[in-house]
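Here is a typical sample entry:
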Amino acid sequence: MSSERIQAFQARAEQALEARLPAAGTLPCRLHEAMRYATLGGGKRVRPVLVYAAGEAVGVPAEALDAPACAVEFIHAYSLVHDDLPAMDDDDLRRGQPTCHRAFDEATAILAGDALQTLAFQVLATDTAAQVDAARRLRMVELLARASGSRGMAGGQAIDMGAVGRELSLAELENMHIHKTGALIRASVLLGALCQPQVADADLDRLDHYAKCIGLAFQIRDDILDVVGDTATIGKTQGADLALNKPTYPSLLGLDGAREHARALYEAALASLEPLGARADTLRTIATWIVDRAR
């Protein structure tokens, strides 16, 4: 049942994203085409699904979760566009198709990323379906901003760039990914839960710990797939991290050590959900998928 819920949430997210993106024919057309290209028609929608699943775990109806689900995916899509740029990872392939700057041009890709970032906050600030008061909405905007900025995702990317060619300790590597990948995953879970006005602080803490664990496990699996996956399956260039001499979990722990570390994080994530009972089954299924996925 939970896997079917995930598929339903993925489909719901796709429709919600489509509805909130500017139409391709709206001026400036090329920019809007690039925004839609970067967002639609691909991707695992992990972050929106986490919003829906966390909301489900605390009794929030799906229609109240569309705005935060879209907001985190717009931030994620913008980050991928900018990560792929020549000044960053200089990648040609994303989600099995040419990266945004290859399909359009570098300047348009930069602007598309900028516009997706600001659209995320517009949607989160103005959508009326989320039944939250102004104070709670402001808290959600602040949470997403912090997770996206220099103390979150952007900061993690800066640490990543500075780490190229260096050997990091496990603590340093995890600190980088807690920011680069984990911050937005944690925000996704908390945004879903915060749409429940009566959510208990203890449940927020449990969900945050779950999200911290699966955020790191997600990155470990990405690092493993960069070594053992193939380009056609993972949808991006296999071996890119190795070619760029980036520090990764397999380079530090070996493949078996990286797998063991991901499994330990998975077990810790599941343990944090125990008090939530069956309501958190979709979150459990997501955790299983994260450590076993092939792309």
Q: What stands out?
A: The first helix runs from residue 2 to 20. The chain is about 70% helix and 0% strand. The CA atoms of residues 249 and 258 lie 6 Å apart.
